[in-house]
Amino acid sequence: MKRMHDKTLWMLALGIAGVAISAACGGGESRSRKSIRGGAENPTAANAPAAGDGAAAAQSGGLKKVDPATAGSITGVVKWDGARPAPEALDLSGNPDCAKAVKETIYKEDLVVNADNTVANALVSIDTNDRYEVPAEPAVVDQVGCRYIPHVFALQAGQKLKIKSSDPTLHNVHYIPTGDENTEDNFAMPAPGVRERTFNSADWIKFKCDVHPWMGAWAAVKTHPFFAVTGTDGKFTIANVPAGTHTLVLKHESLGEQTATVTVEAGKVATAEFTLKK
Amino acid sequence: MAEERIKDAGATFFDVKAMNRWFLVSVAVLTVAYVASVVQDHDREFKGYQGRFFEMERELAVRQGRAAFDAAGGEKVIGDGVDTAGELRDEIERLRRMRDGDERRRPELATALHDAQFRFDVKNAEMKMAKARFEAERFIYEELAHHLGEHALEAPETEEGKAAYEKYLDLKRTYEQLDEENKQAESERDAAQQALAALDALDGDVAAKLVALERDVARLEKRADSFDAERGFTKFRNSIFFNFMAPTLTPRKIVVNEILDDLNFLSVPKVDMCISCHMASDRFKDYPAGNAHVTFGDEKNPLLNDDDSGAFRSHSKPELFCTSLSPHNQERFGCSGCHGGGNQRVGFAKTFHTPSDAHEREVWEEELHWHPVHEWEYPMLGSRFLEASCYKCHQDEVHIPGAEKWNRGRDIVSKLGCFGCHKMEPFDGVRRTGPPLGHVTSKFADLDFMLKWVDEPASFRPSTPMPAFFHRENRSMEPGRDAAEITALVTYLYNLSSPQQLKSYPGSGDAAKGKVLFGEFGGVGCMGCHGIDDFPTDKLGELRHGPELSGIGSKVTPDWLYTWILDPKSLWPATNMPDLRLTEQEAADLVAYLMTRRNVAFEQKSFAKPADDAPFEQILLEKLTERMTAARAAEEIAAMSGLEKRRKAGEYLLNHYGCFGCHEVPGYEDAKPIGAELNGWGSKHADRLDFGMVEFEWKDPEVAKFNRESWLEQKLKNTRFYDRGKDKKPFEKLKMPQFSQLTEGMSDADRDAVMTFVLSLVKDNTAPSIKRQLTADEQAVERGALLVREKNCIGCHLLYGEGGEIRNFQLGDEGKAYYPPLLDGQGARTQPAWLTSFLHDPVFGKGDGAKAHLRPWMKARMPTFGFTPAELNDVVAYFAHEKVWHTSTERELWDTLATKFRKDFPGYEEAQLRKADHTKVKLFHDLVARNYERQGGGFTYESEYPYGARPQPLVGDDLDKARNLFQKLQCVLCHMPGGVVPTGKSPADMAPDLSLARERLSPNWVRHWLEVPEVYQPGTRMPPFWKIEGGVRPSVDPDINDPVREMDLLRDYLFSDSFAADYQEVAKKARGE
Fold first, then answer.
1. Is residue A158 left, alpha or beta, with left meaning phi > 0 and alpha meaning psi from -120 to 50?
2. How far apart are CA A3 and CA B1042, in angstroms?
3. What are the C-alpha distances in Å from B554 to residues B251, B323, B560, B601, B850?
4. Residues within 8 A of A (CB atoms), B 614-673 only
5. Which residue, A177, B45, B108, B988, has fewest beta-carbon neighbours within 10 Å?
6. CATH 3.40.50.720: does it fit domain A68-276?
7. Do the beta carbons of residue B81 and residue A37 sit within 8 Å?
8. pLDDT digit string, tens, across residues A136-152
């Protein structure tokens, strides 16, 4: 009887062990091995083509191009309302190097009204955030005779900007973006030379020279090529503009912004006029 | 026979059969109960989480394995190892077959090698023999030629010589030819050897490559397998009844030896079982960071499904918590030490998870079957108050880096002066917040001002920290009671007051000049601390460091103001108001201006004093009957004069309201604060708080607000709330005044911050070993940090993004020129000795009206603070001993570690830090410094003065070069000595006078500054001459033509003996003189 019990217990124990071992070994080929090396369950393979498509789309459809056949142009003038403010001459005597380098008198440039009562250094551009193809040739700003030339200029986001110094004296170029995307920079140009920079986002950037506090310039960075800066005749021309109705924005460093609406027809010249006053 | 015996023996008093039946029944019941209990115990909440977690771990390993598999070339190259072999395996196969299958090839190669070896051996022997003979003949010929007296060895003249030469030549040719052949044989032998070796190695190399490629895949396969719940063995060991052996689904725990749980008379180490469910807490690289309280699902991690709760998130601040590299790793610090909640147990509701708001609560109730549980006094702190836990260990720090809410709370408590009535450890020994009341008769224009002020402080100045005691909801007793109490209080204070010696205001001030001095471009500095309605910002009306002065003309006398502005400490020795070194005329102008700033509405307000003595008698009666009979009290009152009645009532009321908590009152200098001590309040049981009549409502599980957080929130919103529905005598009523900043409807963020601070004052259950222990240096830094706050350096200066409030008034481009300098890394910039004397007296003895020499164009003046020597030491130590990149000696190591840190933990990019709370900047520096010190990095203050590289004395050629460089760079265009301003420039275009550099600046700092100025002062006008352009650091002086040498020379020149004299010369020249 006692033996019998022992035997049963042993059998039971063996049985359990058997079940355990068979359970442990019964799996056979590993599931993980299959899913790692199997083609069908490949989780990354399923995603791969989708990513490829996206990249292809971005490459082909990123930047717009203007079709000359459907483009017209905009021209106009920026007028001054009121008496012409007298140009204010700068006193450079505190800076012997500059005083020597500059032969003629130079004037303050924050508001330049031409003799024919038009306004120079006003930026006129089309209001759009579409990104257009970037020209290969760089924009240029020069430091000549302790002035920035041009005083107001525009370039495209992604376009190269050549910052030249033609003066034999020390300048530092300190530009301060008003937007959040581009970063401020400051570097010295102790001798004539060229530096290159690129701005990647639309912005309105102040350039200054801390050594010569009167020296300043403004750079407008746009995503498109539809901009112009008025000169000594107060006129501006924006060529190769796609047909359609556009909002034209005038920006002046000390007088702020104005807008106007123009409709451009293919092959024709549209006109616009702005009037500024104090 | 035997059966009968048995029957007899079994004769019992009970029915055996019935008993057997009952026995059977009870066995059945017990068995069922046993099985049921085992089944129930088997079915646990945490197993679901663990099962799902392992599923994700498997998925993760599979994904990584798949990536490794693809990287190794995938099925094409290494094959799946079962059905497809892959190129490499095929190649091995092919090579083996080639080797084994082609029986002739190896013997052929072996024979070829043997033959080649033989040929080489033979040739080699022949060559050596020929060489020996040739060399012997050469010696003989040379001897002979010498003997014969030949002139040239190559052209013998004697016959004998010619013959010998022929023989010698012959032997030479033979040798040379054999040597050539020997080399040929050797290379043939080598080629044969290589051919055989190549054949033997054929499959070996490819096999090794396969193993290397497969190693990662195989490892990840194994890892995936180990998490596979479908494997038979895993199933078996997790199955019911057998899971006692080594189940994968099992409770997990962390024993935290250094933080204890207080179980009434017994302190036991915390045992945190939280990781039984929160298994990804330290895995921020694989699982999305975020605390467990956030909502479900996350698109960022493809592993998580919509149904997965926040349990599978890693800690939201891995740079600080949980991971093995964090300062607070979870092995040592556990979870509940900070989060609270029920440790030693598992289950969502059972561990006292606390929802942060009603919405979260709803979601939890619906999805996680959460319900309020009350058995534990320390439920989890909702994420809202979590920072309260930081203070447990960070007790000696003024601001805890990264604990933004707590820091804000501490600042508010400090400004409101809560510690005046409620003792709390962080403010032990801090001076009273309010001004002294010992000389009110000299200060205020009239008695009426004080009456109206105490009546309703906010009606005069909405931003005041003075709280409102009267007109609160529990004070609607008899009308006129408030007026009587106020009259009594003010009368008493007037009677305590003694006159003060004041300078008399000469009356010659010019208000227009005073206005410019006060506020134009931030003024002489007043606007760093004070606001005024003439110069509004959107922050006007907020509590600032000093009182807003919009109506000051209605408050004080001109004499008092004049004296105060000229010498604040003469009127209040403990004041934080510094001396701006104003001349008497400037002070008079300021007084003239400030006296025009009146609060007309307040002036027109009237205060109705009680018409007779009755209300005062009532107050006295209430107070006196606390310790005597009504008759006796009436007798005493009757004996008093009208004034005495007011004074006595005022005295009782002053003691009752505890005015001396915030104000110095003569005779009450050592009075004990009247409020409840708040040390340990964060551990106070909710049962010990008086919830008033809302107790029954809030205890309701549906409401579940019966906790200390809700109590405190309601108390701050309305300090007299808990008196609702209660019948109390006037002196028994709640008397805590109402702070307008914390009232219901005001900023919830501020109130939460104050609550976080109060909740942080808990009974201390942490071992000293786990607390942040400050070194002597660090203690000085903390004392300094406190002074920087108390003296409000950050009112004008920006310090790691904090403060700089005066900039709000320094508008436009011109305003920028008047910005007081940044103080980030000040200790690395200036020499401690100079900084000490500068802080002691910024004008070095030049007296009133003088400006600091360094930046003469500034409008704001660096004030004279009157620091004690000990305070000076602490402030200087604070700046010098900071562990920030500015003070690091191995800048490259610091930069590398900072970059690595930024890569590991998002949210610390420079642009983000610039906008972030200053404590985050501090945290970033602290965490990088921690790694930096571990890597052996040092700080400037640890090295000998003058901290790092000493400037070298310049001699001869070097001195000339340095002089030339200084001129070439035209430094004097901006750095003009003595504050001279050339024509065409405004003072604001100028830069500091360099003659101070030698004694003021740290040479190391100058060197770094020359290299990267904009890193030290973003937006600085100093141009970086040696800025790396296109990967190259340019040289600016062709004579030196070495940028590093140029920077060193310039630095050494500034510190040289010759500089001072040269500087004046160069400046003269630059001015064209």
1. left
2. 100
3. 70, 60, 13, 10, 31
4. none
5. B108
6. no
7. yes
8. 899 999 998 888 999 99
Q: For residue A219, what is the enclosing H or E element?
A: strand A216-222
In sequence order, the 6+-apart residues with CB closer than 8 A to the CB of B230 are A27, A31
Using an 8 Å CB-CB cutoff, list chain A residues near B1024.
Answer: 186-188
Calpha distance B496→A39 (Å, rounded): 93
Share of chain B above pLDDT 70, in %: 96
Return the minimum-mean-pLDDT range out of A2-16, B22-36, B832-846, B1055-1069: A2-16
Side-chain-side CA neighbours of residue B584 (13 Å):
7
Tens digits of residue pLDDT in B540-598? 778 889 999 999 999 999 999 999 999 999 999 999 999 999 999 999 999 999 999 99
Q: Smallest Cα–Cα separation from B707: which of B340, B957, B387, B974?
A: B340
- CA B785 to CA B875: how far, in whole Å? 7
* CB-based burial, B486-507: b 16+ in 10 Å, e otherwise: bbbbbbbbbebbeebebbebee
Q: State residue A138 phi and psi, 5-degree precision.
A: -80, 155
CB atoms B80 and A27 under 8 Å: no
| Angstrom distance (rounded) from CA B418 to CA B430 | 11
Same fold, B440-661 and B956-1070: yes
- Give, in order, the Cα–Cα distances in Å from B996 to each of B286, B411, B1001, B1002: 55, 37, 8, 11
How many CB atoms neighbour CB B428 within 10 A? 9
Q: Supply the pTM of this predicted model.
A: 0.80
Q: Is the ipTM of this complex over 0.85?
A: no
Confidence class for position B929, pLDDT limits 50, 70, 90 = very high
Q: CB of A162 within 8 A of CB of A219? A: no
Report CB contact under 8 Å: A187, B1036: no
State the pLDDT confidence band at B699, using cuts at 50, 70 and 90: confident
Q: Is B63 on the interface with A (CB under 8 A)?
A: yes
* Number of CB pairs, chain A paired with chain B, less than 8 A apart: 140
Q: A133 in contact with B at a CB cutoff of 8 Å?
A: no
Whether domain B956-1070 has CATH 1.10.8: no
Please report, as a single letter, which amino acid is at residue B674: I
Q: Where are the domains of chain A?
A: 2-60, 68-276
Of all residues in chain B, the one with the smallest CA distance to A206 is B813
Domain locations along chain B: 2-43, 104-215, 254-380, 404-423+675-768, 440-661, 956-1070
> Residue B375: how many CA atoms within 13 Å on its side-chain side?
8
Question: Burial letters for B298-333: b for 16+ Cβ neighbours within 10 Å, e otherwise?
Answer: beebebbeeebbbbbbbbbbbbbbbbeebebebebb
* Residue B735 and residue B656 in contact, taking contact as beta carbons nearer than 8 Å: yes
Q: Which of B82, B224, B986 sits opposite A32 (nearest CB)?
A: B224
Contact status, residue B813 vs residue A254, Cβ threshold 8 Å: no
> With contacts defined as CB-CB under 8 Å, which chain A residues touch B974?
210-211
Axis crossing angle, helix B511-519 with helix B584-596, rounded to the nearest 10: 90
Query: CA B591, CA A271: separation in Å to the nearest integer?
Result: 61
- Strand A139-144, strand A147-149: pairing: antiparallel
Judged by phi (left if over 0) then psi (alpha if -120 to 50, else beta), residue A73 lies in beta
CB A240 within 8 A of CB A43: no
Distances (CA, A) of B701 to B175, B374, B809: 112, 9, 53
3-state DSSP call for residue B552? strand
Q: How far is A29 from chain B (nearest CA, A)?
A: 9
**Looking at the domain covering B440-661, what would its CATH class be?**
mainly alpha
Interface test with A, best of B912, B986, B989, B1010 (most A CBs within 10 A): B989
Q: Which of A86, A87, A90 is nearest to A213 (CA)?
A: A90
